[in-house]
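in:
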């Protein structure tokens, strides 16, 4: 029996405009792409996850101060979730942020996604809160 070939995933810097269709489809299907923008997007670092040459995931990193970076708008297209790309991306962001001198990562996780972030060493802090109608909790990870 032949060994199954691992998917050919890669992660690279992308433009904000490349993120917007994925953000819209995964995080805000009732919003326009323009409504999927967030404050300070123009100064954030946007990373894309590719399967072969197809962009199937994105994440944005925002510098909060000299030590702290915030991960926002992490999205993997639904048909590719659960196949390891999200884990590869988050580990890559940890490594990249450490290399850039950050010592703490923070994010506001949808409560439904906390198991994923917990699996990657992030810890919930504070109380559950709402963004619109969606429950969130702040999570942190020392880098």
């Amino acid at each position: 029996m032949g060994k199954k070939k691992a998917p050919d995933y890669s992660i690279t810097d992308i433009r904000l405009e490349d993120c917007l269709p994925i953000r819209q489809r995964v995080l805000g299907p009732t919003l326009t792409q323009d409504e999927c923008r967030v404050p300070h997007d123009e100064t954030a670092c946007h990373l894309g996850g590719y399967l072969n040459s197809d962009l199937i995931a994105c994440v944005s990193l925002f510098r909060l101060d000299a030590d702290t970076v915030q991960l926002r708008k992490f999205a993997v297209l639904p048909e590719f979730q659960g196949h390891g790309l999200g884990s590869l991306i988050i580990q890559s962001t940890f490594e990249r942020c450490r290399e850039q001198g950050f010592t703490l990562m923070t994010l506001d996780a949808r409560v439904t996604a906390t198991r994923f972030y917990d699996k990657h060493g992030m810890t919930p802090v504070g109380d559950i809160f709402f963004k619109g109608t969606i429950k969130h909790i702040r999570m942190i990870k020392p880098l």
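note: The mean pLDDT is 94.
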